[in-house]
Design brief:
CATH architecture of the largest domain: Sandwich
Strand order of the largest sheet: 1-8-3-6
Number of strands: 12
Number of helices: 9
Shape: globular
Distance between the termini: 47 Å
CATH class of the largest domain: Mainly Beta
Structural class: alpha+beta
Helix content: 40-55%
Oligomer: single chain
Order of helices and strands: HHEEEEEEHEEHHHEEHHEEH
Strand content: 15-25%
């Protein structure tokens, strides 16, 4: 178990520069937890008391505005979530976290999380940087909902997903390694499913994407990125 968790911890950007001995000393603070597919890890509005690192699996982070679901992110192995509500006592969860696959987590309680940050200023600063980047991305997503049309939002979200979850294939195409339904894509961009389906069909007919077993493939990643940049 220790070998596994050390490898997982080393993948996190704010832990990569920690002294090996110090990193080793943090291992007993983490508890391993296996969560079934379709489980809610926490709800929007809950009090935050835990921070999560994904050893394996896939988690969907989403919010509900009273009328529709808005997916904020997909988070998979080697990444983390749940830190924002722990940074300041009293903050509530700003979104819901749900597993899309059977998921293995390493869990850190608030008191241990705070202890780590207090003892390591560099780690605290780096985590702050990455948290600010996530907030910036969330704000950009909100702006996109206001200023971009549905097609432009779908183009932009596909580019983002290709950078976060993409694999470059031997033929130069980029495969997004998520099995996405049309409803999930609609929830990512604040559209209805019918609109998302129509736009995805248009993008296939125009030769920008193909779909293989629910995985979207960008036919020409560089050209696709240029198209998004021109939006």
């Amino acid at each position: 178990m220790e070998r596994d968790i050390k490898a997982v911890l080393r993948t996190l950007p704010f832990l990569q520069d920690l002294d090996a001995g110090y990193l080793e000393s943090t291992i007993p603070l983490f508890q391993k937890r296996r969560v079934k597919k379709g489980s809610i890890i926490f709800f929007e509005g809950d009090e935050g008391d835990e921070f999560y690192i994904i050893e394996s699996g896939l988690v969907k982070i989403y919010s509900f505005d009273g009328a529709k679901t808005v997916i904020l992110a997909f988070i998979r192995e080697g990444n983390y979530f749940g830190e924002m509500a722990l940074i300041k006592p009293g903050l509530l969860r700003s979104a819901t976290a749900e597993t899309l696959e059977a998921t293995d987590l390493y869990v850190l309680r608030r008191r241990d999380f705070e202890q780590l940050l207090v003892k390591n200023n560099k780690m605290a600063l780096q985590m702050l940087w990455f948290t600010m980047e996530r907030l910036r991305n969330a704000n950009e997503q909100i702006q996109d909902l206001t200023f971009l049309n549905a097609r432009e939002r779908i183009l932009k979200i596909l580019l983002r997903l290709s950078k976060e979850h993409g694999t470059l294939l031997a033929n130069g195409e980029m495969q997004i390694n998520l099995k996405l339904t049309h409803q999930q894509i609609a929830d990512l961009v604040g559209a209805v499913r019918e609109t998302a389906s129509k736009i995805l069909q248009e993008l296939q007919e125009e030769g920008f994407i193909t779909v293989d077993q629910k995985k979207i493939i960008l036919k020409d990643p560089a050209n696709f990125e240029k198209k998004v940049t021109d939006v």
